[in-house]
């Protein structure tokens, strides 16, 4: 098997001066989330640093030198040591991105629709594991964190230019696929609206060992094209939503829990790592892979 054209194939032990050029840190919690990120780099160089067990992949995106890493396990427990080592090894990092997949709330605000494949960018992060145990059970209390100001300004500027000139996401996705096509990988094509089903909130997935198509009543679901105009998407043209991301050490896998957290915190996306990185004020970007309900296995 030949290596992708942007992969040098060399492992490097960079000097302090060489590491100083990297100003953007990028954490992808799972390997499958790191793969498309690596395709964005002009050239991929593997970096090792003394007394650091992380294995870094580095390169350039535009004018920025970026260093990337993935975790040994997902969740709040696996990420703090990775981030601490990254910042100790790359002391000139100015910004941190946390990029992966997450569960999304299907509709919010005034009829806004989130569909599979859309992105959610954090305006703020709510820590869902902070709270108190009461006679009525565990009650989550408000603990809010924000990305650093420079990243928020950059995200807002990009949002404005996309509104004016159109999104570059379709072109970027095409370039990523061209890189991925250079070596065997899992399918990365847009599955389209026919593969996007939203089940009734009160209808649960009963068999965790079977896919929805094999055990669920599909009449209790609606396809994307049946959800109204704001759920329509052109191929490879996901919408980008800016809002609150809920982060905790457990998956949100129930529509009732999802709706309660939205009403309480305004969270439109749920994930498991950001709350452990809040001292670094990362910008969190999540691609929506499910609706944070019991039908996650699709």
Largest sheet: 5 strands, mixed, barrel
Which percent range describes the beta-strand content? 25-35%
| Discrete helix count | 7
Uncertain stretches of 5 or more adjacent residues: none
Order of helices and strands: EHEHEEEHEEEEEEEHHEHEEHEE
Helix content: 10-25%
Describe this entry's structure for a reader:
- The chain has 298 residues and is of the alpha/beta class.
- The strands form four sheets. The chain has a five-stranded mixed beta barrel. Strands 7-8 form a two-stranded antiparallel sheet. It has a two-stranded antiparallel sheet with strand order 10-11.
- The chain is globular, with a radius of gyration of 20 Å.
- Strand 10 (131-134) and strand 11 form a beta hairpin.
- The protein has helices at 16-19, 31-38, 80-89, 149-165, 169-180, 212-215, 255-265; strands at residues 7-12, 24-28, 44-49, 52-61, 64-70, 95-104, 107-108, 112-113, 119-127, 131-134, 137-140, 144-145, 197-199, 221-223, 240-247, 267-271, 283-290.
- The protein has seven helices and 17 strands.
Question: Topology of this structure?
Answer:
Elements: E1 7-12, H1 16-19, E2 24-28, H2 31-38, E3 44-49, E4 52-61, E5 64-70, H3 80-89, E6 95-104, E7 107-108, E8 112-113, E9 119-127, E10 131-134, E11 137-140, E12 144-145, H4 149-165, H5 169-180, E13 197-199, H6 212-215, E14 221-223, E15 240-247, H7 255-265, E16 267-271, E17 283-290
Parallel strand pairs: 1-3, 2-5, 2-6, 6-17, 9-15, 15-16
Antiparallel strand pairs: 3-4, 4-5, 6-16, 7-8, 9-12, 9-17, 10-11, 13-14
């Amino acid at each position: 098997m030949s290596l992708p054209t942007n992969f040098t194939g060399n492992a490097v032990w960079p000097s302090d001066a060489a590491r100083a050029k990297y100003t953007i840190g990028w954490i992808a919690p799972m390997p499958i989330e790191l793969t498309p990120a690596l395709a964005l780099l002009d050239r991929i160089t593997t970096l090792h640093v003394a007394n650091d067990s992380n294995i870094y992949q580095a390169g350039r995106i535009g004018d920025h030198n970026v260093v990337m890493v993935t975790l040994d396990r997902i969740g709040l427990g696996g990420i703090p040591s990775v981030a601490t080592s990254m910042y100790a090894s790359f002391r000139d990092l100015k910004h941190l991105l946390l990029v992966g997949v997450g569960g999304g709330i299907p509709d919010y605000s005034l009829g806004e629709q989130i569909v599979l494949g859309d992105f959610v960018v954090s305006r703020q992060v709510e820590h869902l594991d902070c709270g108190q145990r009461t006679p009525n059970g565990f009650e989550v209390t408000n603990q809010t964190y924000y990305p650093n100001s420079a990243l928020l300004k950059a995200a807002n500027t990009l949002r404005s230019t996309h509104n004016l000139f159109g999104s570059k996401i379709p072109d970027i996705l095409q370039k990523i696929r061209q890189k991925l096509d250079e070596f065997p990988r899992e399918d990365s094509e847009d599955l389209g609206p026919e593969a996007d089903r939203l089940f009734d909130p009160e209808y649960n997935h009963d068999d965790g060992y079977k896919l929805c198509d094999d055990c669920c009543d599909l009449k209790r679901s609606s396809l994307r094209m049946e959800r109204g105009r704001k759920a329509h998407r052109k191929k490879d043209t996901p919408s980008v939503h800016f809002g609150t991301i809920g982060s905790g050490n457990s998956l949100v896998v129930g529509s009732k829990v999802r709706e309660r957290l939205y009403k309480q915190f305004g969270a439109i996306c749920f994930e498991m790592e950001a709350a452990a990185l809040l001292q670094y004020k990362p910008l969190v970007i999540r691609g929506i892979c499910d609706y944070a309900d019991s039908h996650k296995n699709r």
